[in-house]
Amino acid sequence: MSDVIVVIGAGQIGQAIARRVSAGKHVLLADLRQENADTAAEIFADAGYDVSTATVDVSSRESVHALVETATTLGDVTRVIHAAGVSPSQASVETILAVDLYGTALVLEEFGNVIAPKGAGVVIASMSGHRLGALTAEQNAALAMTPADQLLSLPMLQPEQVKDSLHAYQLSKRGNALRVMAEAVRWGKRGARVNTISPGIVITPLAKDELNGPRGEGYRRMLDLCPAGRAGTPDEVATLAALLLGPDGAFITGSDGGVTASYWFGDLAPK
Asked: What gap in Å lies between CA 3 and CA 63, rounded to an integer?
């Protein structure tokens, strides 16, 4: 059986990462829209990759579990690349929380049950998660460790607490980073690793929606005034992801060797 690389979200970042880590392995490209997966699969097949496709709605446990079952029939799941999501200009508060927050928790939970020993995962979060003000320790723990199916019932995520779609996005992306730390502890018990990347403004269709949306002026100001002086590219994100997913990143899980993750959410937590 093959080693299987699961790519959830067949967009530019997911594809760029997969190109770097999938030679000689089977690539399973999953997307909410079958046409997106098919378009990406044609590109991969033409470049010599062994590839198949699936549809997945990450906001549905049944759908994510079905993707897990499809992946495990193909071989051992050795890499998971979670790059699916919606942006503040694309979706409502409810959809952002369901897809970006709950959906990521589902993916981590379901694939954490089957990830192969020495396997690895990477979740694409966002710089927005780091621009949110400090949360309490209790809120951090709730975002990190509340069972996925109870996550959207947290008081801090109720309509009267979430101001708008940008706030929902920032909470979701902060939650992604915290959830990955907690899952790093659980994945570690299987001998696997998981990390998150929080890109800045990277030119993708999602970023173009933001640049042309109601927050476009603010985005352009960030590009003009940031030290880099430009937007990033999916391939630059993929270079980092390849490190985290490959043997050179074998010590990195949950942001370091896993000590910080375990301190907050595992066996090293203060008594």
From this structure: 22
Q: What's the pLDDT tens digit per position in 151-191? A: 999 999 999 999 999 999 999 999 999 999 999 999 999 99
Known catalytic residues are 169, 173
Cα pseudo-dihedral 205, 209, 211, 215, rounded to 10: -150
What is the rounded CA–CA span in Å between residue 79 and residue 1? Answer: 15
Q: pLDDT category, 201, cuts 50, 70, 90? A: confident
**Pair 183, 194: CB distance under 8 Å:** yes
Q: What is the CATH number assigned to the segment(s) 2-201+234-265? A: 3.40.50.720
- The domain locations on the chain are 2-201+234-265
Q: Could you tell me which residues come within 8 angstroms of residue 21 by beta carbon, excluding any fewer than 6 positions away? A: 5, 79, 81, 241, 242, 245, 246
Contact 82, 29 (CB under 8 A): no
- The token duo for 177 is 């980073």
Q: How big is the chain, counted in residues?
A: 271
H-assigned helices in the chain: 12-21, 34-46, 61-74, 93-96, 103-112, 137-145, 165-188, 205-211, 216-225, 234-245, 259-265
Backbone angles phi, psi at 227, to 5 degrees: -55, -35
